[in-house]
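Comment on the following before class.
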Amino acid sequence: MMALIRRDLRLAFRTPGQSLNPVAFYLMVASLFPLGIAPERETLSQLAGGIVWIGALLAVLLSLDSLFKGDNDDGSLDQLLLSPHPLPLLVLGKIIAHWLTTGVALIVMAPILALMLHLPEQAFPALMASLLLGTPLMSLAGGIGAALTVRVQRGGVLLTLLSLPLYIPVLIFGTGAVQSAVDGMGYSGHLLWLGAFLVMGLCLAPIAIAASLRIVVDG
């Protein structure tokens, strides 16, 4: 699993454009929101948490289509399926590499976008903590859709339709944590739910992804 993570990280560093595209899209989405709604400071401060979270969700969706497609094109996916090592662990390694190249960049960019959108200072810890728990969960949930569409030509729309229902609880509790902090209320309950979802995702998503890959490839 560690060898697979190192391999995917090397490939990402050799083709930086593939990793930078979601970050650029993230910045673009968050920058365009103030132009489409009222640019007043009070309005933006109330909507900032939701804007940052929606931008992160869309950026992760943009990057998921290539999660297994490259391995499928060069034959590496067949080698993973034939490997004597447990496939769920190998899949988990690819998800971790995806999060390190995409999710971490989104977390680093979040404070800058929050400042642009006038998010109150007391909500910054809630925003960072919720993204730290939510972005790996989005990679895990989106991996299921990426596995099911790995051999579908131009399956981006289908991938979005499969992944969005799994993202709704993450979006609700992530934005809820930030909004509770903005309103001066406690947000630990939202983070605990995100943490519980993350534990469930780490336990169940690799198994589901591995089963999906076997069904798609064998079928």
Residues 111 and 124 are 7 Å apart (CA to CA). Residues 2-218 form one domain. The first helix runs from residue 2 to 14.
